[in-house]
Design brief:
The chain has 199 residues and is α/β, with parallel strands linked by helices. The protein has one domain. Helices cover 35% and strands 15% of the residues. The chain is built from 7 helices and 7 strands. Strand 3 and strand 4 form a beta hairpin.
């Protein structure tokens, strides 16, 4: 079993890891850090790469665990995120196949960030067709998996190229949120994940 963090709409590298392992442990003792993929993701829009971020209340300040981080709803961030996804992907081949189900998950207004991330990750696992199982586990992250959760670390992961929504405007953007892959490739997403490789 690998022990990894719960992330928001994980990137292609994260889901390649899920592809490679049957049992996935999601750490409940992972320390919450700001400006990481725990509460943010990257999508491709008409203006280039855009970062979406969930507002979070750290209940214990700098000592807050990811399992203790609470989502805040002072601003209607769900509406903003869904509008950004619509703007970015409504013309993609598979957007209409998945967006209603995603909207239903957002409408639940989860309090816990880790519970929201787990539901989204399980939804993505099911739609992509991965065979791994997720379970929360009271163990810290392995050092090798801390790297993939921090956007400040430059990834050497090689995403197998696929046609993106704004491919006529931009060069291929690797390792975006796996949503970019799912909306553009649908059932073929698992083939792209399989062809992608660690650097």
């Amino acid at each position: 079993m690998v022990v990894i963090p719960a992330v928001y709409f994980g990137n292609i590298e994260y889901f390649h890891l899920l592809l490679e392992h049957n049992e996935i442990g999601i750490s409940t003792v992972d320390g919450y850090r700001k400006q990481t993929y725990r509460n943010r993701c990257s999508i491709l829009t008409a203006n280039g790469v855009m970062k979406l971020s969930i507002p979070v209340d750290r209940t214990n300040g700098a000592n807050t665990l990811t399992s203790e981080a609470q989502i805040t709803y002072a601003a209607n961030w769900q509406k903003d995120h869904l509008k950004a996804l619509e703007s970015a992907y409504r013309k993609s081949p598979y957007y209409e196949f998945y967006i209603d189900e995603l909207e239903a998950v957002f409408a639940k207004q989860h309090t816990s960030l880790i519970e929201f991330n787990l539901e989204l990750t399980q939804w993505l696992i099911d739609r992509i067709g991965l065979s791994c199982t997720l379970q929360t586990i009271n163990k810290p992250l392995g050092d090798e998996y801390k790297f993939s959760v921090d956007p400040k670390n430059k990834s050497t992961f090689n995403t197998y190229p696929y046609i993106q929504t704004f491919s006529e405007r931009f060069e291929f953007e690797p390792n975006l949120s796996v949503l970019d892959l799912l909306f553009n490739e649908g059932p073929n997403s698992i083939s792209i994940l399989t062809e992608s490789k660690k650097g």
